[in-house]
């Protein structure tokens, strides 16, 4: 039944991102009033903005922050009637990442943590198996089942890189999320993406969104760079003076992506 809900496996992408994440980088977000309010608002009877949109330019670490948020919520959800779901959009996988498959993967994650699969889902599975050798669930069915599941337990939905979702699909996805939130006020949605989709999100989820800018902090970048340098195959290529020079000259607006590139260039810098 779980495979029928969606062929996608976001947990594999999450595990990959998690394995490359540097400890302490991005934890500043968890301490912001915006995140704390969003995280705890489901416990306050559904008060507050259910959607937190974190936006930033390419390379500032949005995907790493998404994985950090997912793990933080998972730790919080232990021994509670809470489901944590996630999805990572990828421009290269647009064809596979349809709205139905994406939402189906969220439903699959929420259901997999239950002791038994709800009868509504089992019944839909049996009925669809009777026709044309087994028909995949349709979007209205998925949305309805998500409404039922999220209404019965506190649910967090974390979506990374929404800007990499096809424009036509994005509108359909946001409308579906609105339907879910209408029926399940305790559901909380965390979204990351580039700044240009902020207006669209706020329009389609009117009155429900709080936005927060993600930017590289010099402290986080230094932590990231030190770790990457320490992991490099030739750590002896850089002496103390070169390390100090590099760390002193990191500009405030440099992204983690660029810092990683510098880390790879350290041996060449030392040779020069």
Automatic annotation (TrEMBL):
It comes from the Eukaryota. The keyword Repeat applies. The keyword Protease does not apply. Residues 26-194 form the Nephrocystin 3-like N-terminal domain. Gene3D superfamilies: P-loop containing nucleotide triphosphate hydrolases (3.40.50.300). Keywords: Repeat. InterPro entries: NPHP3-like_N, P-loop_NTPase. It holds the Pfam family NPHP3_N. This is Nephrocystin 3-like N-terminal domain-containing protein. It comes from Choiromyces venosus 120613-1. The lineage of its organism: Eukaryota, Fungi, Dikarya, Ascomycota, Pezizomycotina.
